[in-house]
Structures are given as structure tokens and as C-alpha cells.
């Protein structure tokens, strides 16, 4: 049986007059994936998301969700998508329960489901409080509740951690993982690279309307050929340390206190580790640090600026 991708974007472009906000985007998100979209302000993320949601029609190209095309099945597609915008506006004089009941009625959902999602987002005890008294973080939670109330196939989150305190961010990450385990495909945009690195299975980086790099974290590391950092703690720093390291064919290193930091190609890690562990140096501890998303993002942006 053929597995249908949750989202398929083919050669999508968007023009506003002479300005091209999105340039020939091709993007596939498989069922059950968590995909993160990165890029600075003005990179085209919001326009792409609006096209995926059916709020903006592509000037060129096609967008399909669960095998359905917006041109033919617009209403059917929107039943399958949940969305949390960066800024969610509610009626201040309604309670959380009244607000969610309103969305449930629009989507033909029972009130039992309202109870379930309020529990999931941690608002059960505040269900009868007016939304106007809510903190920004609580309003964000209510926004999440309305986004998942109909159990969407695709959940789109635009800067979902905005306004959340550290505990709220941890709880949100756990919610995202749980929804994903239940089968929901998730697309989210974020400026927080640590959140992306922790949650995303696939990452797309946008710049000037184009996806300039995408893949898993490991794939991005490999494409850029970024070195692995090996940190070695020594019990004693020998006077001839530099000579010892050069003899071991280790030339790119820094010494700070009793710690040696070595940058080496990924395919040379085993060779370097074996060289420093041969008994000549008195090693207390050894740590490997693969290049993180922050380093990858900075490298990509630096290469674009050249």
C-alpha cells in the first residue's frame, strides 16, 4: 500500500507585484515527521506557511496535504490542518471553556473533546476564568488547544514557545512529542535553535524566499563538512605537549589549563582518539562535541554573505 506524504509542495512561488516572496520551493514532509523551518525575519517562512494553510494562493506551483489539492479540496484539507499563529487573539470576556466550546462547535467536535484538550495543555483548573485575565503563556496554551481540538493530520505551529516560561517550554515540547507519537505530523517555525535541535527530525533553512538547506541534523553536518571537537582533560600537561601532538599528526588544537581542544574531520575521530589514548598522555576524561545547529546555521549564513 502506497504511503501518502502529509505535505507536498511543488515549485511553489509567490509574487506580490514585482516582489517575489517565495521562490520555487519544493518540500515534502512525510507522515509522522516533525519538520522545523528556520530563517531570519523576512526569509519567506510566514508566506510559505500561509500558502500551506490555504490562506494565500501560490502564484505558481502546487500544494497538497494528505494527497489532496487545494484547488479541488480546499474545505476538506482545512479540516485536516491545525494552526497556532505566533500571535493568537481571543475575546477577553469569554472564559477558556466558552472559547474552546466555540471552536468545537465550528468544527463539529463534542464538548468531551474540549475537556481532553484543556487537560492536555494544562488549563483544566482555569477553564472558567476569563481569557482577558490570562498571561501570555496561558493564552498560548489556549491557542494550542484550539489547534489540536479536531485531531489534525498536520499541525502547524508558528513560533510556539513565544511567551512561555522555561517550565511551559518543557511542557510544550512534551506535548509536541506526544501528539507526534499519536500520529500527528508537525511543521513548526522557530528562532530558538536549541528547541529545533531537540525536537525536529527534519530541518529546512530559508533565506530570501528559498530553502537553501534541508535534511536531518546529521545530514546538514555532513554536507558542510564541519569538524568534530574533541576535548581531552589531562592530569598533567607535559612541557613538550605541542611536539607530542604534532608527532601524533594532530595539528589543529588549543590548550586551556589542562584541557586540549582538537578540531578534526568526522572521519578521523577514531584515529585521533586512538592517538591520544596510547598511554603517552595522562588522560582523565575525553568528550566529543558534534557541531550543533547554531554552528551549522551560522556557517550557512556566513557562506551566503561571501
UniProtKB/TrEMBL annotation:
- Could you tell me which SUPFAM superfamilies the record lists for this protein? P-loop containing nucleoside triphosphate hydrolases
Q: Which stretches are annotated as coiled coil?
A: none
> Cross-referenced Pfam families, in alphabetical order?
ABC_tran (PF00005)
- Sorted alphabetically, which keywords does the UniProt record give? ATP-binding, Nucleotide-binding, Transport
Does the record carry DNA-binding as a key word? no
Domain ABC transporter: start-end pairs: 7-233
MF GO annotations: ATP binding; ATP hydrolysis activity
What residues form the membrane-spanning segments?
none
UniProt keyword annotation of rRNA processing present: no
Family according to the record:
Belongs to the ABC transporter superfamily.
PANTHER family assigned? ABC TRANSPORTER, ATP-BINDING PROTEIN
Name by which UniProt lists this protein: ABC-type multidrug transport system, ATPase component
> Organism, per UniProt?
Desulfitobacterium dehalogenans (strain ATCC 51507 / DSM 9161 / JW/IU-DC1)
Amino acid at each position: 500500500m502506497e504511503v501518502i506524504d502529509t505535505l507536498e509542495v511543488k515549485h511553489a512561488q509567490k509574487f506580490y507585484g514585482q516582489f517575489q516572496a517565495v521562490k520555487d520551493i519544493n518540500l515534502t514532509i512525510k507522515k509522522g515527521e516533525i519538520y522545523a523551518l528556520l530563517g531570519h525575519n523576512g526569509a519567506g517562512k510566514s508566506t510559505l506557511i500561509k500558502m500551506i494553510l490555504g490562506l494565500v494562493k501560490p502564484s505558481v506551483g502546487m500544494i497538497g496535504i494528505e494527497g489532496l489539492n487545494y484547488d479541488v479540496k480546499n474545505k476538506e484539507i482545512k479540516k485536516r490542518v491545525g494552526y497556532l499563529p505566533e500571535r493568537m487573539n481571543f475575546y477577553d470576556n469569554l472564559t477558556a471553556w466558552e472559547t474552546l466550546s466555540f471552536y468545537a462547535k465550528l468544527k463539529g467536535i463534542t464538548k468531551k473533546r474540549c475537556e481532553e484538550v484543556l487537560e492536555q495543555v494544562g488549563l483544566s483548573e482555569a477553564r472558567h476564568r476569563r481569557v482577558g485575565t490570562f498571561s501570555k503563556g496561558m493564552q498560548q496554551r489556549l491557542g494550542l488547544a484550539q489547534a489540536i481540538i479536531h485531531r489534525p493530520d498536520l499541525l502547524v505551529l508558528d513560533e510556539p514557545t513565544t511567551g512561555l516560561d522555561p517550565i511551559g517550554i518543557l511542557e510544550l515540547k512534551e506535548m509536541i512529542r506526544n501528539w507526534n507519537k499519536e500520529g500527528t505530523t508537525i511543521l513548526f517555525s522557530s528562532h530558538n535553535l536549541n528547541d529545533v535541535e531537540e525536537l525536529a527530525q527534519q530541518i529546512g533553512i530559508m533565506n530570501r524566499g528559498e530553502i537553501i538547506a534541508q535534511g536531518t541534523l546529521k545530514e546538514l553536518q555532513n554536507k558542510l563538512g564541519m569538524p568534530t571537537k574533541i576535548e581531552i582533560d589531562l592530569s598533567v600537561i607535559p612541557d613538550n605537549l605541542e611536539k607530542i601532538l604534532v608527532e601524533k599528526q594532530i595539528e589543529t588544537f588549543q590548550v586551556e589549563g589542562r584541557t586540549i581542544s582538537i578540531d578534526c574531520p568526522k572521519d578521523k575521530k577514531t584515529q585521533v582518539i586512538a592517538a591520544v589514548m596510547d598511554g603517552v598522555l595522562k588522560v582523565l576524561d575525553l568528550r566529543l562535541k558534534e557541531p550543533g545547529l547554531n554552528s551549522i546555521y551560522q556557517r550557512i549564513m556566513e557562506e551566503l554573505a561571501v
